[in-house]
Amino acid sequence: MAQLWGGRFTKQTDAAVKAFNDSIGFDKRLYRQDIRGSMIHARMLGRQGILSEEDCRAIEEGLTGILSDIESGKLEITSEYEDIHSFVEANLIDRIGDAGKRLHTGRSRNDQVALDMRLYTRDAADGIRRQILHLLETILEIMEANTETFMPGFTHLQKAQPTTLAHHLGAYFEMLRRDYTRISDCRVRMNECPLGAGALAGTTYPLDREYVAKELGFDCATRNSMDSVSDRDYLLEFLSDLSILMMHLSRFSEELIIWNSNEYRFVEMDDAFSTGSSIMPQKKNPDICELVRGKVGRVYGDLMSLLTAMKGLPLAYNKDMQEDKEPAFDAIDTASACIPLFAEMLRTIRFNKKAMEISAMRGFTNATDAADYLVGRGVPFRDAHGIIGRLVLHCIDQGKAIEELSLDELRTFSDRFDEDVFEAISLRTCVNRRLTAGAPGEKAMEKEIAASRSWLEAQA
Ligand code: ARG
User: CA-to-CA distance for 324 and 26, rounded, in angstroms?
Assistant: First the structure.
């Protein structure tokens, strides 16, 4: 028996319809969740006196056998079944007979699949949260070692003001920390148990929904049974979170690609995390970053598919909802493949500190500080801005940095310049005097890093 229904039908399902309708091809990965949910459902039916102890025991044993046979490869999940729920139930009936036929008492596939997906997504969310923590640890270690690695900070991809590698990577630390807490928030709303909602209107059996919820690690049972079987908000939220996370990884990738380019040479990727060209022998390409950047599109697409699938659905369950699985699985698979690879790529990257520092010195990133120097000597900021602007123009013409001009030359632009200007506009001074909270100055940065370190440790 491959099908759970058929009594009211007089014809076999058309083969093309069956293939179109079946979901076992992709929902087979829910077998663990399905079996676990069935186990607790049966136990609850037993406790409530709805099933005999004997039947309960037979069901538990049967389900345990199915689980271990699937895991050992002895039992293959084959495509003659409609979905994973049918597969497990049909197998159980084959193994234990009539007791197996009692498992579905007080349950519908609608609340069953709602439960399975929540259990699966909750595990996925926890897995991805762990992966993010690992990536955060990798970033923080690089930050800790690079509070004095100077580099240009950019706006419009034009050199703007000097900063440090620790400060630049700290921005990604913040993005990914938000991704982590966002997924944690979403997990709270996800963690309610829909089992017991039945097809849509609950059931006449005296189910103990709170018991089931607790046994399955949920905070509580869901409240409205129609909503319980037709809610996919938690998935939409999770896919939104994954989309934002992937967007962050994509931005990070883009920067590393730029930094790895022949022109920048700020970083060198490890050979084990780069690939070559079939024709150009000199090539070493940052493919991991490019693939991560490319895969974002899939995750956005997955989110958009699910949003669109849900948008016109009347209450309660509709078969459209079967379309939640492939995008959800794809987004989860994609994100969870990207995060650890990205972390490893980052851990093995070599930062070319000299090139970063030279680049910071070469781009007039100290122009604001030169203006501030004049402000300190009584020049109004707007005038100082104009003076330094003309000075920069002169330097471009001469092919020199501001600090490479002599004091006499500087004085032709303003008589307020003195010998101490060179110290005032040195890279180290420019960075380390930026001490507002969140700024790159070493003291400010060390404070942020220490706070991030204790936050990270508190999550473990
Ligand atoms: N395969 C279905 C899904 O993924 C399971 C629920 C089926 N329920 C139903 N009434 N046909 O949504």
Answer: 11
Q: What is the pLDDT of residues 29-49, one digit of tens each?
A: 999 999 999 999 999 999 999
Q: Decide: 415 and 378 in contact? Cβ < 8 Å.
A: no
- Is residue 276's pLDDT more than 90? no
User: With helix as H, strand as E and coil as C, how does 28-63 read?
Assistant: HHHHHHHHHHHHHHHHHHHHCCCCCHHHHHHHHHHH
The token duo for 32 is 């663990």
Q: How far apart are CA 155 and CA 434, in angstroms?
A: 17
Closest by alpha carbon to 173, among 149, 146, 152, 148?
A: 146
Does ligand 1 have an atom closer than 6 angstroms to the CB of 232? no
Residue 450 sits at the vertex; the CA angle it makes with 449 and 454, to the nearest 5 degrees, is 115
Q: Which helix (H) or strand (E) holds 192?
A: strand 192-193
Structure tokens at 184: 């944690």
Phi, psi dihedrals of residue 193, rounded to the nearest 5° = -95, 120
Neighbouring-strand partners of residue 154? 159
Euclidean distance between CA atoms 253 and 250, whole angstroms: 5
Tell me whether residue 386 is exposed, middle or buried, using C-beta atoms within 10 angstroms of its C-beta: 0 to 12, 13 to 18, 19 or more: middle
pLDDT tens readout for residues 106-163: 999 999 999 999 999 999 999 999 999 999 999 999 999 999 999 999 999 999 999 9
Whole-model pTM: value is 0.95
Q: What are the tokens at 122?
A: 């909750």
Give the Cα separation of 210 and 71 in Å (integer): 30
Residue 73 is encoded by which pair of tokens? Answer: 């490869």
What pLDDT score was predicted for residue 4? 82
Q: Ligand 1 atom 11: the closest Cα is on which residue?
A: 319
Q: How close is the Cα of 323 to the center of ligand 1, in Å?
A: 10
Q: Ligand 1, residues 4, 18, 23: which to mutate, most atoms within 8 A of Cβ?
A: 23
The helix/strand/coil state of 175 is: helix
